[in-house]
Design a protein that fits this description.
globular, 216 residues, Rossmann fold, 8-stranded mixed beta sheet, 9 helices
Length: 216
Amino acid sequence: MQTIAVIGGTGDLGRGLVARWVLGEEKVIIGSRSPEKAKKVAEELSRLTGREIGWGRNSEAARLAEIVVLSVPFAALSEIAEEIRPEVRGKIVLSVIVPLKFEGGDIEYIRPESGSAAEEVAKLLPEARVVSAFHTVGAKMLQDIGSPVPCDVVICGDDLEAKKRVIGLINHIPGMRAIDGGPLKNSRLVEVTVALLVELSRMYGVPGVSLKFEGL
């Protein structure tokens, strides 16, 4: 068992990850800028899963964890990174962030100056071991805890041991398969595909579109 802090665990994707990991017997803490909101969601998910879930402020959750997951809006990343920076030195930080813009019914990927959200995380948290994954997984699929999640998850990162740890978390979720996508800079190739998946989901009226690779 390892301790995972999900910063932004009150959002849709964060909730799904929390539920799946506690069902996999991991210890999970929900981090939020609002402890009251974190507590409320932790209690809801505890009732749903029958497992105990911790909660607290972002910095507190990060301090107590071995692996810190960033599941927050890109616009909030800089502020949250500053808040947790002292608590993540030498720790694995998993970015699931995708900077998307919705306007007039259109969706657009907004490429950060660093190249990708994951690379921006690495820039803001230089002493953390940053990897990226879970961009292409639908939140509703994760939250449907009675069903497997039949999809592939591309993981990118420069720290091989950090990738190995997160690959274990991916493969532990029923139906999922981790695909090593190479160095962290390849996150930009994965993040940009999310706009397409969201658009396909809208066009075909399905709750979530994911990826499955053949030949790998």
